[in-house]
Amino acid sequence: MTESPAFPLQPAPFTGESREVDAGACFDWLQQGWLLFLANPGVWIGSTVLLLVILSAISIVPVFGQIAIHLLVPLFGAGMFQICRQLAAGGEAQIADLFIGFRHNAGPLVMVGVIYAASVFGLAFMAFLLVSGGILGGAITGRVAGFGITFGGIMLAGLLVMVLSVPVIMATWFAPVLVLFHDMKPGAAMRASFAAGARNWVAMVIFAIFLVVALFFAMLPFFLGLLLLLPIFSGAVYASYRDIFEGA
């Protein structure tokens, strides 16, 4: 005889399973990001200004500042997603929500940052070895042939870093929101993020192209466009998370 279910029924545990969406879904994500920005522009602009000031101050420190920024990206990313969740639920978002990652699941979020930073600097070191090898080979060979070797080394390094950066970005894309909202472990969250990106690679590529173009124009007027781009981008990523992950 089976036991009677206990009420209220508990929802099924979140497993990180993702689904495939249409390629055009990225335009819906951007529209939702814009609507989330309009829901409370004051909080968004205040949070973005504070975030840019903090990151700019940290970046002044040579070497260690860049490492710290890469470690803090998941923490502040979680804060932006918390603002999105508050606004999407009709709640009152606050600038203090930007720091929720420091109060909830800070350790796992930092670990995501550690893996991300180690991957980025590992790729940078690999590129340095390729470029330095090309320069050394060019110096030994001579002027004309040496220029070709040096240029080839630089192009190879750039291409290799670009290709190998894609899996790192895919694994980090949704990881902060999965850790923050669903208490997933860093490794599991990054695997789920990578799987979701691979399953929806067409929509993600279109979304990434739009982001790169928008980022270029956002930086032209003294980086002021970032005050609009970062909130909309955060809202769009939050919308994509809600769209792609089952049970989100």
Concise description?
The protein has helices at residues 25-39, 41-59, 64-88, 106-141, 143-173, 175-182, 186-199, 201-218, 226-244.
Protein architecture, described:
The chain is mainly alpha-helical and 248 residues long. The chain has nine helices and no strands. The protein has helices spanning 25-39, 41-59, 64-88, 106-141, 143-173, 175-182, 186-199, 201-218, 226-244. Helix 8 (201-218) packs antiparallel against helix 9 (226-244). The radius of gyration is 21 Å and the shape is globular.
List the helices and strands and how they pair.
Layout: H1 25-39, H2 41-59, H3 64-88, H4 106-141, H5 143-173, H6 175-182, H7 186-199, H8 201-218, H9 226-244
List the defining traits of the structure above:
single chain
- Could you say which overall geometry the principal axes of the C-alpha atoms support? globular
Order of helices and strands: HHHHHHHHH
Whole-number radius of gyration? 21 Å
Approximate helicity band = over 70%
Strands, total number: 0
The biggest beta sheet reads:
none
Strand content: under 5%
> Stretches where pLDDT falls below 50 for ≥5 residues?
none
Summed over residues and divided by their number, the pLDDT gives a mean of 84
Structural class: mainly alpha
Q: What's the N-to-C terminus distance? A: 34 Å
Tally of contiguous helical segments? 9
